[in-house]
Amino acid sequence: MNNIPNILTSFRIFLIPIFVIVYYLPVAWSAPVAAFIFWLAGITDILDGYLARKLNQSTPFGAFLDPVADKIMVAVSLVMIVEHYAIIWVTIPAMIMICREIIISALREWMAEIGQRASVAVSRIGKIKTFSQMMALFLLIWQYSPMMEWAGFAFMFIATVLTLWSMVVYLKAAWPALSSQ
Q1: Boundary of a domain, candidates 85, 105, 128
Q2: pLDDT at 80
Q3: Maximum Cα interatomic distance, the chain, rounded to a whole number of Å
Q4: Which backbone phi and psi does 91 adopt, to 5 degrees?
């Protein structure tokens, strides 16, 4: 566990409660600082994966913890955004994103159990979905201006479409294994 990628992943988990506390502080700077913490968590996610490959420090613990840290940060952020905006046009995309993460996580776990994890490995569309989702959340957390929020809403709807699309791609790839069991 004591390698740089795992330390970065653990740091990302450590940031989550700090992120929430800062977001809800009754001060003018809470939203931009919370957005910065969210951005920092995203950078550590990119960096830990890069370093794990570059330094040959991939571990089973890191392979487990990295996606968990990502999903917790995203789910917490989505819940906070839903609470802040309290409108159906934010709630439904957030529900879709959270439900998709649960479905795909369960699918990957099941596929790993039957020795077919590679058929549901992260795809290019999944990476684009993640980028759109992170941009949406960053912009909607910061809430600097109406224009920034509208851009956040646009990214959120793009991420929602990509969320559904990538889920269909993963389920289609897994369908032969699912239907034969």
Answers
A1: 85
A2: 97
A3: 56
A4: -65, -45
* DSSP assigned state of 181: -
DSSP string, 29-54: THHHHHHHHHHHHHHHHHHHHHHHHH
74 and 4 part of one domain: yes
Give the integer Cα–Cα distance in Å for 153 and 164: 17
Last residue of a domain, one of 69, 85, 101: 85
Least confident of 32-36, 79-83, 99-103: 99-103
> What's the CA gap between 12 and 16, in Å, rounded?
7
CA distances from 51 to 5, 6, 16, 46, 126 (A): 6, 10, 22, 9, 21
So what's the pLDDT on residue 99? Answer: 95
CA 151 distance to own-chain centroid: 18
Entry pTM: 0.90
Mark whether 44 and 93 lie in a shared domain: no
Question: Domain range holding 107?
Answer: 87-181
Rounded distance, CA 128 to CA 102, Å? 19
Q: Which alpha helices (H) appear in the chain, and where do they start and end?
A: 4-24, 30-54, 60-85, 88-113, 124-142, 146-180
**Tens digits of residue pLDDT in 111-142:** 888 776 666 667 788 889 989 999 999 999 99
Amino acid identity at 146: P
Q: What is the C-alpha separation between 172 and 40, in angstroms, rounded?
A: 34
